[in-house]
Amino acid sequence: MNDIAGEKLISAAYLFGGGGLAFTILPFLGVIAYGVTKANQGGHNKSADIFSIVAWALVVHTLATFLFFGLIKILDNTSLDMPNFYTTKVFPIFWAQSKEQVLSLAGVTSSDDILSGVAYSTLNLLQTVRDWIYMSLPLIVSIFAFIYGFILSSKDTYESNIISVGAYTIVSFVVVGLVYLFWALISSYALFMPNGMNILKMVSQIWTNLFNV
Question: pTM (2 decimals)?
Answer without folding.
Answer: 0.83
